[in-house]
Design brief:
- It contains ten helices and twelve strands.
- The chain has 276 residues and is of the alpha/beta class.
- It has two domains: 129 residues, Leucine Dehydrogenase, chain A, domain 1 (Rossmann fold), CATH 3.40.50.10860; 136 residues, 3-Layer(aba) Sandwich (Rossmann fold), CATH 3.40.50.
- Strands 2-1-3-5-6-4 form a six-stranded mixed sheet. It has a six-stranded parallel sheet with strand order 9-8-7-10-11-12, sandwiched between helices.
- Helix 7 links the parallel strand 8 and strand 9.
- Helix 1 packs across helix 9 and helix 5 crosses helix 6.
- The mean pLDDT is 97.
- Bound molecules: 2'-monophosphoadenosine-5'-diphosphate.
- 2'-monophosphoadenosine-5'-diphosphate binds next to helix 6.
- Belongs to the shikimate dehydrogenase family.
- It is an enzyme of class 1 (oxidoreductase).
- Its EC number is 1.1.1.25.
Amino acid sequence: MSDKILLAGVIGAPIAHSKSPLLHGYWLSRYGIAGHYVPLHVEQMDLEEVLRMMPKMGFVGANVTIPHKETVLGLADIVTDRAALIGAANTLIFRSDGKLHADNTDGFGFVENLRCNADWKPEAGPAAVLGAGGASRAVIASLLEVGVPEIRLSNRTRARADALKDEFGAKISVVEWVHAGDMLKGARTVVNTTSLGMHGQPELKVSLDHLGSDAVVTDLVYTPLRTSFLTRAAEKGCQTVDGLGMLLYQAAPGFERWFGKRPEVDDATRQFILSA
Ligand code: ATR
């Protein structure tokens, strides 16, 4: 039906803080698409039933966020390789054949943000990754995919970093959290995946003494946009890329699948989100 209003949303608990409805709403109105994108507060015990009902209610797809990103894999009929590798999904498609398709675009968003906002050559040298939580998994998987030769990984809780090394293999080495600054020597890509530096959290105090000016440094934290970690890296002469772009780029493939238009991630989009 050509006059059908397309419906999508984001499923999580809590969900009120999510910027996804703002972003998709902005793109829908910018491109004049007859669609809606809504926040859906869904508890774990209701997830399966909600996913079964959504296509019947006219939803063409959804984003998934905390705490459902891992659980949803077990409920999907089709899981993309990258979602399986990361062990989590953030983008769902309710296919017309009734099958639930689960993908993960976090790694794509991470890589696209660096590619579009820096002169970044992932193969040029080692990457250093701070943090070994859920976000780190997507970062590590995508760094390996784009050909970084080596990943140095450090996390306050060492066991989580060791588990990622066991899973992702020989290119990963684990560095004690107290020595995290040492792994920046010679690194060409440096990523903060921890929540340190976010509004209300302590600062990321890792020493940048060994950081060379040829590193591209990025922070997944985007509240504030310029974390003190990025400011310190810029003072060392590094290219720095803030984390807002990852949020914007990870959303683009879902929007295109559901609403039929590849949205632009440009300054107008950034400004809209920042001012909202
Ligand atoms: P996400 O999905 O955003 O990665 P997460 O899985 O809760 O969230 O991971 C949060 C990351 O921030 C972890 O690497 C965590 O370190 P631990 O594994 O030791 O918990 C890190 N982190 C959070 N608070 C921290 C702090 N005060 N000091 C050091 N690392 C911290």
